[in-house]
Amino acid sequence: MLFTSLEYLLFLPLAVLLYWLLPRKLRLPMLLTASWAFYMSWVPAFIILIAGMTALNYIWGGVLHRAQTNRKAIFGAGIIANLLCLGVFKYANFAVGSASTVTGWLTGHNPEWSVNIILPLAISFFTFEFIHYLFEIYRGNKPIDSFVLFALFAAFFPTQIAGPIKRYPDFVAQMKEDETKKFKLSMLDDGVPIIITGFAKKILLADNLSVMVNMMLKEPLAYGAPELWLFAYAFAFQIYFDFSGYTDIARGSAMLMGYKIPINFNMPYIANNMSNFWHRWHISLSTWLRDYLFIPLGGSRDGKWKTNRNLFLTMALGGLWHGASWNFVIWGVFHGLALIVHREFCALKEKFQPINQFVQSKVGHVASILLTFHVVCIGWVFFVVHDVSTAFGIIKRLVLLKPIYTTAEQGHFLVLRPELPVVVTIAIGITGLLLLFNFPVTFLNEKNVFRRAPAFLKAAYCCILILLMVTFLPDNSEPFIYFQF
């Protein structure tokens, strides 16, 4: 059940209506039932997995809290159990395939081993929430005392598939308010515009950009450097509008029932360094990696070399979390190295005041934003192009700016060839205009300007977006990119 599907447009109002009409003591059981039904709409059998992992972590959290001795071993066993579930379902195919390739290199004969394990939807996200829960119990927080509350913490349908990754103390506090919570029109007033904004980001921007991205992905090395930079820019904004659109729909859906979930993006492409980018991009994941991987590895406590090592390992594992493929590992390594370079540059500029003064100037600030954005775009090539050798070939052309034209005979860019579908040129033009429109809208939304705006302005804004979506609806709506993780 995609957020952009007709099924969800029927499911959400029904769930919200039942939530507010049922007796207060039935709200949470109903919401859990709706969340599990939402999950079962994909592959019904996988409800056994999420229910089993939920029961295991609920029991194990209680055992860990009550333990007087061997707490570290109990905690470690719980973490290993969660990682084993994630490893079997998400990485078994990757591990067997990689072992087959290595065996082929060593013996000269590729045995072509394979397994066929279907990746359960959202397993990466709810596994991270379970691990976070056990970490917090180990650190002394009280466990959730109700199975319904705990199950809903993991299964809550707006955040179930692609986050944001929730923190249980905050979310449980909101769930415990259900028996006293009253419906307010402000919930609709706040939630509906955010949902419509999310739909617009996905349908108007991400899906139109995907037309060009998918076209160029078919044969990327047939294009010259300018076209490949256009491809990199297109995917950078596609994934941003796709994922931030999902988050907006999730946040808005939760608001209709009085829940607040974390903001996951804060205008990431105006970041002026790689560290700042990760404070703005997929915030719930970056803070999770910081709190439950980087800091447990040692953080920045033991000197420069170990800090850089911890950064490298954190981002490499973060890349692997995104997908069971070497291109994601390389993407994570790329970001780990970029963060290390930024850290070393920060130490260097403190020793050379002219460099420091330039970086702090307006020109230096703009240059830093442009440099950071282009470094991120290079990284996105590894993310979207699964064949590693092809990805390196694209990056070589991007960095060397060669060739400008694919062949001398053509004399113009391939994306402007007349035999290409007209929709490609239209999509580029529409996307450019909508991007220009989206930036001020995003800025105003982040500053809560819409929340304070008069009702007639909100209504006009929503009507304009709906009209644009109907007018420029692409032929096919792509699945949300982060659904694959």
How does the SSE layout of this entry go?
Elements: H1 6-21, H2 27-40, H3 47-66, H4 71-107, H5 123-138, H6 147-155, H7 168-175, H8 185-217, H9 225-255, H10 274-280, H11 283-297, H12 304-322, H13 326-349, H14 353-360, H15 362-384, H16 388-400, H17 422-446, H18 449-452, H19 455-471
Helix pairs in contact: 1-2, 2-6, 3-4, 3-5, 3-6, 4-5, 8-9, 8-17, 8-19, 9-15, 9-16, 11-12, 12-13, 13-15, 14-15
What fraction strand?
under 5%
Secondary-structure class: mainly alpha
The CA-CA distance between the termini, in Å, is 16 Å
Evaluate the radius of gyration: 24 Å
Mean pLDDT: 84
Number of helices: 19
| Total number of beta strands | 0
Q: What's the order of the H and E elements? A: HHHHHHHHHHHHHHHHHHH
| Low-confidence runs of at least 5 consecutive residues | 408-412
Helical fraction: 55-70%
**Total number of domains:** 2
Query: How can the largest sheet be summarized?
Result: none
The dominant shape is globular
Summarize the structure.
With 485 residues, this protein is mainly alpha-helical. Helix content is 70%, strand content 0%. The chain has two domains: 6-182, no CATH class; 187-484, no CATH class.
Model description:
- With 485 residues, this protein is mainly α.
- The protein folds into two domains: 6-182, no CATH class; 187-484, no CATH class.
- Helices cover 70% and strands 0% of the residues.
- It is built from 19 helices and no strands.
- The chain is globular, with a radius of gyration of 24 Å.
